[in-house]
Amino acid sequence: MDFISDEATLSVLSKLEETQKDYWNIPRNTGILLNTFIRMMNAKNALEIGTSNGYSGIWLAKGLKETGGKLTTIEFYEKRQSIAIENFKICGVDDIVKPIQGSACDILEALDSGEKFDFVFIDANKREYVKYFELIKPHLLPKAMIVADNIISHAEKVQTFIDAVDSDNDFQYTILEVQGGILTAYKG
Questions:
Q1: What is the value of pTM for the model shown?
Q2: What are phi and psi of 147, to 5 degrees?
Q3: How much of the chain is helix, strand and coil, in % rounded to 5?
Q4: What is the rounded CA–CA span in Å between residue 58 and residue 11?
Q5: What φ, ψ does residue 158 adopt, rounded to 5°?
């Protein structure tokens, strides 16, 4: 059961799954996992780094609709962000999604010190994962969760990120062997 039952959203998700490889989308089982994490944690303020066409953001936002939360999502490419914004509207989550277009590192560096997140999903430039981690740490609430995609499929590119999480005593983490692999890190 994936907890999404409205026809408009199911239709959008199915269409986006047909273009998964073109837009580097997560597989459905990872989307269900993200939605489950959001709901289990009762997350209220989530950040997504790497919007693409909105597929993972829809899964996140649908969970956040249930928790009364909101999603900030960052995408480098304007065309992809435009597609995502339209998909968010169709799925009825545009009212809780704040899309930001530009370089994730630049945007994260410019975040207001008061901006805090309890859930972060990373699925963007793999070599920058370690930079994202360093930049978001000051913005994480206690008991926040970070989920990063492509940890196994892009192991060499994300190794510095894995090492940084591993050496940070504030985090407990594991790597789940789903398609592409994901790292889940919990801030104690």
A1: 0.93
A2: -125, 130
A3: 45, 25, 30
A4: 12
A5: -105, 5
Domains of the chain: 7-187 (3.40.50.150)
Distances (CA, A) of 52 to 42, 164, 166, 167, 169: 25, 26, 28, 30, 32
Strands 182-187 and 171-176: antiparallel
pLDDT in tens, 48-91: 999 999 999 999 999 999 999 999 999 999 999 999 999 999 99
Q: Cβ contacts of residue 151 below 8 Å, gap of 6+?
A: 158, 162, 175, 180, 181, 182, 183
Q: How far apart are CA 150 and CA 8, in angstroms?
A: 28
**Token pair for 185:** 């890190």
Q: Tell me how far apart the alpha carbons of residues 133 and 19 are, in angstroms, rounded to a whole number.
A: 29
For the chain, give the percent of residues with pLDDT over 90.
84
What is the distance between the alpha carbons of residues 128 and 32, in angstroms, rounded to a whole number?
Answer: 25
Q: Which residues, including other chains, have CB under 8 Å from residue 167's CB and lie 6 or more apart?
A: none
